[in-house]
Model the fold of this input.
Amino acid sequence: MIIKWKDDYSCYDLTIDQQHKKLIDMINQMSEIVELNDGCDRYDEIIELFEELKSYTVYHFNHEEELFDQNQYDSFNIKIQKLEHKSFINKVSAINLREVDEDQIGAVRKILDFLSVWLDHHILVTDRKFGAFLQENAK
Ligand SMILES: [Fe+2]
Done:
């Protein structure tokens, strides 16, 4: 397990929390495949999960962005969040899949390190800021 859900990740919105839990599960699933280290070619499985993770992340970002508008989150924070979302999608799209084919374990470990550090920061810093805003405005 490369990343584990903790109560600190809670963002005061059940759907956002559930989606973050699913992203954590997907990262861990990818990690499990790679750590099997059984000498089998797992390229197709890894790529399938990776593509799933990418499209689920886009879905998650869209959900968050809808909530920003619905709750009239301030425009400066919306701008920062949207930039963060965009830069993540660009980074993930730029990952060289040929490298994964050549060195499955090494390349995927590198990707997983990036994904787990990124998700931890995304939840703890950016999304929790929005969560605090939601909590304040729900009073
Ligand atoms: Fe998020």
In short: Residues 16, 20, 60, 64, 122, 127 surround fe (ii) ion (CB under 6 Å). The chain has a mean pLDDT of 94. The chain has five helices and no strands. Residues 104-138 form the longest helix (35 residues).
